[in-house]
Amino acid sequence: MKILVKLSLFVLLLGMASCKESFVNVDNPGAISTANYPGTVADLEQLLAGAYATQHAPNLFGHNMLAKNTYLWDHTTDLSWQGTTTWIQLAQNNSQVNDSFLQGTWQDLWRGVQRCNTLLAGIETFSAKANTADAASANLIKGQTLYLRAWYYFYLTSQWGESFIVDGQGGDKMGVPIITKTSSSLPETQVARATVKQCWDFIISDLKAAETILTGKTWTGTTDKYKVSGWAVKAFLGKVYVYTQDWANAKTYLSDVVANSGKSLVPFDTYKNMFNAQNEFNSESLIELNLNIDMTYRGTDDRSMGSSIGMVIAPTYVGSNGGQAASAWSNVFPHAKNIARFGFNLGHYFPAGTATANIANVDKSYITKSVAARANKTVDPRLWVSCLQPYVDSMIVLGVKQPISHYLDISEIDMEAWSFRKYINLAGTEGEVNMANGDNILWLRLADIYLLYAETLTHTGDNATALEYVNKVRRRAYGYAVNTASAVDYKTLTDQTSAPDAVLKNDPLKYERWAELFGEGHWWFDVCRWKIGDKEAAYYQRVRGGAIQWDPTDYAQPIPINEITSNFSMKQNPGY
């Protein structure tokens, strides 16, 4: 079949080449000519806006990211929707080569790379004839573009690279193609996969070049806050060095960010709502994907300034009949075993034997115990930052407060079926914002950096300081002063946590990364680089669609079949 596709495409191209110019002339007289565009700094800024915006294209953080990939692979979520077989298979760690969600994410990430490559070429042409001031402005745009290309490659390598680099091994495995210019012919699109190490080296090279340009640069203007700063680049570099286990460089960069960036953890009352369009660009934030409510285009449209992630993870609430009502698509909910991992063990909101998910059947003593646990902080408070509790928490629907329900379409009445809280609209339903949620994605923040720094210190001989940075994150979660010893501090790096499972029960560093960053899309990559996928699968066991099917090759996703058939040099990942 592949040979037929290749031959057909080749014949088509030959036929086009042999036609007379008048027959194949497809010039658009209204198109912008590359001879004079980009011709100004404003033109470059326009192209830069497109490179940033691709981060929230429909198949990235505009819709697919989280609920249709990483949330499923690491079991942040379970599915109420059972109508899409390949979606269920993603949640079973059984990804398929023809999965449309994976295909879309692959395409949009490469579209981001292509836009960056196009812009970098335009900058070079523009700068060669620009005056000094315009050349300086173009150089700042170049720094941001290099950062963005590294960002797209970060996801391509993390999701489709055959392996992470672990204990010096895996660097020779297959990564993704390294492409630095836009293709002008079919042969230029036939690029083989580089190695994993080559991909990470490329990411680091782009970030180092961006660092050189952007060091000391901050953006204070209202319309520029979303742009990457010098400290953001250094923080991203620190994260990449941790991901590649280059502990010496990781320590250099992360310690610099911790000590000199001026960033600080925000108080708990700010933290708990900063994923819901409140407290954006605060003192903890290093990189945010800037989103806005867009009543012109839905979040699933590439032209929208918002995201429809909230539509997929939307809470369900108690309807007029006391049963369950969807606030949007409401397709996924937090996997039940995540509730226990936060230390919640107060029983279930419905008494044993309850037949119908109705508010009239709720155990009143359960509500009393839950309210007390929240007030007394006997359960990790981040549970309620991340999730909405049925029949205890509420949401706003058309201006009216409604209780959260047992999640829609979950027939298993005895299952914990909560709703997500991060990245949903707290002021109303997703439909009220045209499915174009304006909650910024806090992609890299200081709590993440603290925990990466702590991990780095455990590998460079300073467990005492590592423990302190783990405790800083924990103290904020419980409302204590960040820099002062507290009653909730871990005593050692093997102290008991809130989690009941073997993976996290006696590993505060891993637990804090899981709990602090829950629902933010980082845990899957931690699972991959720590190689704990089999242990995680053993803990979660199954999703509603069936048993989790873990294989050692599941750390890497399958190259989409469309790419295999269109790029003759592309090789598939093992196991698919």
Automatic annotation (TrEMBL):
<comment type="similarity">
    <text>Belongs to the SusD family.</text>
</comment>
<dbReference type="Pfam" id="PF07980">
    <property type="entry name" value="SusD_RagB"/>
</dbReference>
<feature type="domain" description="RagB/SusD">
    <location>
        <begin position="297"/>
        <end position="576"/>
    </location>
</feature>
<keyword id="KW-0732">Signal</keyword>
<dbReference type="InterPro" id="IPR033985">
    <property type="entry name" value="SusD-like_N"/>
</dbReference>
<dbReference type="InterPro" id="IPR011990">
    <property type="entry name" value="TPR-like_helical_dom_sf"/>
</dbReference>
<feature type="signal peptide">
    <location>
        <begin position="1"/>
        <end position="22"/>
    </location>
</feature>
<keyword id="KW-0472">Membrane</keyword>
<dbReference type="InterPro" id="IPR012944">
    <property type="entry name" value="SusD_RagB_dom"/>
</dbReference>
<keyword id="KW-0998">Cell outer membrane</keyword>
<protein>
    <submittedName>
        <fullName>RagB/SusD family nutrient uptake outer membrane protein</fullName>
    </submittedName>
</protein>
<dbReference type="GO" id="GO:0009279">
    <property type="term" value="C:cell outer membrane"/>
</dbReference>
<dbReference type="Pfam" id="PF14322">
    <property type="entry name" value="SusD-like_3"/>
</dbReference>
<feature type="domain" description="SusD-like N-terminal">
    <location>
        <begin position="41"/>
        <end position="241"/>
    </location>
</feature>
